[in-house]
Amino acid sequence: MSHGPLYGMDGSDYWAWYYDGGGMKLLDEFYRDVLKLNVVGFPIPTDYPQGMGWFKKEINSLSDLKGLKYRIYGIGAETYGRLGVSVVTIPGGEIVPAMERGVIEGAEWINCEEDKKLGLHQVAKHYYTPGMHEPVTGGQLMINGDVWKKLTPDLQEIIKVASVYATTQRNFAFNRETAHACQDLIKAGVQMHRTPDEILKNFLDEWEKIQTEHASKNPFYKKVIDSQKAYAEQIVPFKLSWFPPYNFAGEYYWKNKIYLTKK
Fold first, then answer.
1. Running DSSP on this structure, what letter comes out for residue 244?
2. What is the three-class DSSP state of 142?
3. Whether pLDDT at 263 is above 60
4. Any residues with CB less than 8 A from the CB of 205 and at least 6 apart, and which?
5. What are the tens digits of pLDDT across the range 194-238?
């Protein structure tokens, strides 16, 4: 599960859960026993975090979102829908034309880099981040099980190591590429806003209700989130207690460079 708040974990924690917290065993079980697929899977590059999205007007509270036609998908759409937002699920290629025609009034996609490629800055000038619906997005490399078994152990290990290396390198480059893209958007006249805490808090409250409902209906879903919760319960409090707050030294050196505004 990578579409949701992940109990306070960030992308590094989520990836660590796979390799250090039992996630790989659950991934194998999911393919083998739940989906009944003959495949071997590996988690690959994670893009994180993603923004709440683009709007033609300022969003200062949850009430500004209620009734607004907002493009989002997955359980994020389910959550916002229950918060009173008029959610619309359309493919990425249709977002910009829909915004131009007024079919939708807001939309989330991915991040500054990918959103710029899509052209969202040409149809809206208010960009809100973070988005609590998708702080982490993970891909999967899937290999046919019969093909995998034919590979020699050394080739299997090479694939495993290569997937870790590719993800690590992508995560490094992601921050730099996205930072540059955000600056490009600002130069193009986009206003970057901090998503109001009220919206983030209400999303978490509703998300907890929804995931509880899903867990009551799907034993494997419950097994996965219980595993993630157990890992997060160890890692997140440790990092909150032990790691220096990112904004402390960050603001000491770069406070005048922060481009998010908070109402």
1. P
2. strand
3. no
4. none
5. 999 999 999 999 999 999 999 999 999 999 999 999 999 999 999
Q: Which two tokens stand for residue 63?
A: 């009430």
- Residue recorded with tokens 């990578």: 2
CB 17 within 8 A of CB 95: no
Structural tokens at position 260: 């998010």
Binning pLDDT at 50, 70 and 90, where does residue 46 land? Answer: confident
Query: Which of 64, 63, 54 lies closest to 192 in space, CA to CA?
Result: 54
Rounded to two decimals, what is the model's pTM? 0.92
Residue 239 — φ and ψ, nearest 5°? -70, -35
Q: Which of 223, 231, 221, 212 is closest to 9 using CA atoms?
A: 231
Closest by CA position to 99, among listed 129, 57, 58, 51: 57
Please name the residue that has the structure tokens 């208010």.
126
Query: H or E segment at 144?
Result: strand 137-144
